[in-house]
Amino acid sequence: MDKQNKILIIGGTACGSKAAARARRLDPLAQITLIEERRQITTASCGLPYYVSGVVKNRSDLITRGNVYFKDVLDVRVITQTRAVGIDRTAHKVTMLNLEDGNHSNLQYDKLVLATGSVPTAPDLDGKKLVGVFTLTSIRDATAILDMVTQNKPRKATVIGAGPIGLEMVEAFASLGMDVTLIEALDCVLSTLIDPEVAALIQKLLRNKGVRLLLRQCVMGLEGAKNGAVQRVVTSEGAVDTDLVLLATGIKPNIDLARDAGIEIGARGGILVDSYLKTNDENTYAGGDCVENVDLITGQRILSPMGSTANKHGRVIGTNVTGGHETFPGVLGTTIVKVFDYNVARVGLTEWQAREAGYEVVSCIVPDYEHARYYPDGKTIVVKLVAESATGKVLGGQVVGKGEVAKRIDVLATALSFGASIADIANLDLAYAPPYNSAMDPLHVAAHVIDNKESGYARSLTPTAVKNKLDNDEDFILMDVRSPDEWKSSRIHTRVTKLIPLMELRSKLSSISREAEIVIYCTTGLRAYQAQRMLESAGFNKVTFMEGSLEAWPHEISTSKTED
Amino acid sequence: MDKQNKILIIGGTACGSKAAARARRLDPLAQITLIEERRQITTASCGLPYYVSGVVKNRSDLITRGNVYFKDVLDVRVITQTRAVGIDRTAHKVTMLNLEDGNHSNLQYDKLVLATGSVPTAPDLDGKKLVGVFTLTSIRDATAILDMVTQNKPRKATVIGAGPIGLEMVEAFASLGMDVTLIEALDCVLSTLIDPEVAALIQKLLRNKGVRLLLRQCVMGLEGAKNGAVQRVVTSEGAVDTDLVLLATGIKPNIDLARDAGIEIGARGGILVDSYLKTNDENTYAGGDCVENVDLITGQRILSPMGSTANKHGRVIGTNVTGGHETFPGVLGTTIVKVFDYNVARVGLTEWQAREAGYEVVSCIVPDYEHARYYPDGKTIVVKLVAESATGKVLGGQVVGKGEVAKRIDVLATALSFGASIADIANLDLAYAPPYNSAMDPLHVAAHVIDNKESGYARSLTPTAVKNKLDNDEDFILMDVRSPDEWKSSRIHTRVTKLIPLMELRSKLSSISREAEIVIYCTTGLRAYQAQRMLESAGFNKVTFMEGSLEAWPHEISTSKTED
User: Fold this and answer.
1) Is there a contact between A333 and A348 (Cβ–Cβ < 8 Å)?
2) Which of A146, B69, B317, B361 ranks highest by number of CB atoms within 10 Å?
């Protein structure tokens, strides 16, 4: 380019700073300016919960590159503590407000990049301004929480909102020794991300970790002491005493600047961009948390505010504002969150979302070992796969547990990018050696279960369905086909539970009533499915197995400790 | 089916036992018979090195299901210690030899399954029968090694062959306290699986672990003491004193029975099967180590003996011998092996294999953190990606290091299954949270590097090319752009190495000769690439960076300990 390209980027976290760095590497002569409201660019927001918990020791660790690097190495003009307050699209001019001295000034641009991120959607609660009430979107927020923890030594923390940040902060507060209450207005934790039966496993974990979990409770207000410190959270069901409150009810795109300038906003509240991440303005691009993304499964536009996506956006935008033609295809809503010693991950559509979207759905719940059973220290994971019944197309997946979860969700994310079917998953040539996997990966097994269900071989009930039958006091046999030793150490203790070990089942067929409805369980569902096939072969025709069996059973079980 | 289907399966390890179990679940009435030479079916051969090392404590852990389960639960007739010695395809009859009593007998079949596995390709060496010389394909072999270790307390072990089993056994012997020598006839370890520059990193690791590594040495013979115990391995270059020898020179399909019956054998020495895993005989299927597989990248038939593939074969065969029509698409040669604290994995074609197959290739070497840098206990991995230059189609990948490797290779394996391009990899929506990943996965970064190379922005030399320049005493500047502290703790110490920290580079441009050839390195190549772009922008035109930089440098570096 003959003329020096003036690139103005608003927002210096993930997308904005990545766009600046990429633009510099492609166009050495461009004049690149980055405006940021805070003191620092390139802060790693996703690390904030770990800074609060003390897992990340130094505040400076959360600054990826920093202002000086952008100035000295990338020759980017970095203007911090400055807010863009207006865009004149005709004159190609942005008005800025210096937050330190209150002065306004203008900057010209040839290409404008909106990377304004998100803002918390904290509800307008009475008491929101009380001392000890926080949100968590910046290092300043994290430092304020840490200061409060150090000075006041709060004993009780309340987290409002059971999304990923809420759950990460529950763990952070618990690790700091506080009694933690988690309040969620909806039916389950992570309700927009995973299905209730999977969420139930996380809820069981939280309760086991001593977290007080209040589901289906709306927060009505916060009450404080005379000194202005928060003291109580009032909910639709009662009240919770507390010394500290974290509002983690979500975030929304920060789009006021864009909207005021006539940049088109989508139905979900984010800036509308095309596949080049260009807005309706020829010279304005947008990326990161402030835009809507295309859902690669449904083709619909969705909000999917993730640091990973923001970085990818930044690279594409950096290319395109320097004359390139890169596209960004969309997202799968891939999410992973650490909840104590559980790894919780999801991708694509949940079963509920898939049904809402009009799909005829088949799903499965499959617990399995993370690697070869005989290799030591193996931990369990639970896989839920969701597929379209007619085509076998995989629509989504959820994987949770103490074992290796990230690998399986990333494999699913990759498969979903290419429209994989259940048969594709079953035949993936995944890496196998005993320390890493079983000969059959849990995803293979899950694909087989769906195949078996679709072929009519596997006939199953979910744990929820079985629980309902028990709660309704229905007449059926809940057949435990594990070994007597396993039975002794733990079981679903009901009046209809009956032990017939799989190894003895064939020889005991004649002792079982052919009239009775039989639901079989074992540890993971594998032996129960085998038993179902055996019983059906012998002419029993009211037999199902419980999917996921004990490993997916979110309710209490009797253990040898709890019985005589 | 009206008539009882007689299914006869020869071989009861992975493929055979899986086929039997699947067939039973689909056809309750079939008469299923499994013939096995050894005492036990369903032995987990892949666990043998870990049984020898003591990581797996109990021999019984290596029996997945066992004979009784197949008999009592699956109603499969299991005939052990019996070898199939002839197939009469016209009469649908197999002749068996009882290895205990030497008697012959016949069995009829409607469907025959050949799951005869593999046999070691141990060379016909003098001294092969000496005491203390082993192969490792069965629990009996592993027990023999363990007995010898317990009784004779050997101090020196020699492993011949540096494939996956060889490397696993090097670790096993080292963990038992022995001095280990590894002898390999070819240029590098894992030579058919990874490229030499990646192998060099494993070789560095092995030497650091105290393993004596003898590459490019052929074993000429084994010499023993008067008592018949092995004492010395004679190679093309000298001799190695030893108390124990493991021959791990590979395996080949066990196909004599099939070939003698007129079953078609492929050019690579395995049984030829179609996508239904059916042989040239209408009623005979084959799977597992004894067959050839289709390479999903090249479409060529290859040998790829893996327990994971054998299990998948078994399921497909179990379906098809009971009237189903399942297909198996092929393999990618996905392999993973633990070598001490390194995870080593590969998929698809190596760069060398890709060039041999006629592809125009672009590749990269990218070291990166396994997860967010600021999250504690992060370890490094090195990614090598291989792609077709014209189309950007990914052809293969190699990932090694102490960090999380299995996830990345499984993502690549999944992507390769769908013919992914470099652009596809760059935009994969992989799961991100600080404990699991960086916002950009190492695979994203690797895809970007290839994109930058193809676009002409990134211009690089491999570590091998830089080493050659140094060895040839060429005149150039080897520019280290890390910080002075990093420089102090370690560096490539040569007469041409020069420190100019990236943060100071822009201000020092005038002090650098524009005539000189400059090769830049840092820790991973990231800062070096940035420096290359900066120098080029400033008019320098003989600048490259060293790919992978210090993390991919397999040669010695000077550390603060080694210098004054």
Assistant:
1) yes
2) B317
